[in-house]
Design goal:
By secondary structure, the protein is of the alpha/beta class. The protein is 44% helix and 12% strand. It has six helices and three strands. A three-stranded parallel β-sheet has the order 1-2-3, sandwiched between helices. Helix 1 (2-20) packs parallel to helix 2. The longest helix has 21 residues, at 45-65.
Amino acid sequence: MTNVKGSWLVSKYVCFQMRAFNQTGSIINISSIAGLQRTYSPGSLAYASSKSALDTMTKLMAMELGKRKIRVNSICPGLFKSEITVGLMQKKWFKNIALKVVPLREFGTIDPALTSLVRYLIHDSSYYVTGNIFIVEAGLTLSGVPLYSSL
């Protein structure tokens, strides 16, 4: 439950400081598609539960902090091209799966897919956006079919 406790403690102490200085702003929690309740993966009980709890915490924090003009949103990334996934993404069978189950037919990179959303959410132009769960995953979870089941 580090996903929830860590985010809660950081948010709590940042909000104490924001309140002390009468500061408005934005809190962005990083969640996961695992917590969306669209697909379930065996062996991910603790991880998926904690990410789902983080999304609920995001919504409740948005309700409680809105009166202080502090916005709270969550981003649920899917699978991205990165140093960690480079080996997996180069496999032919994995590319075939992406063509079958991912509506956009590819996996993006963290920059710009996630970073542009973060830049928007921290900017004052998002002053009317709070309590949202932003899903950034090329449509992977829309079908409700776990990625591994398409093998």
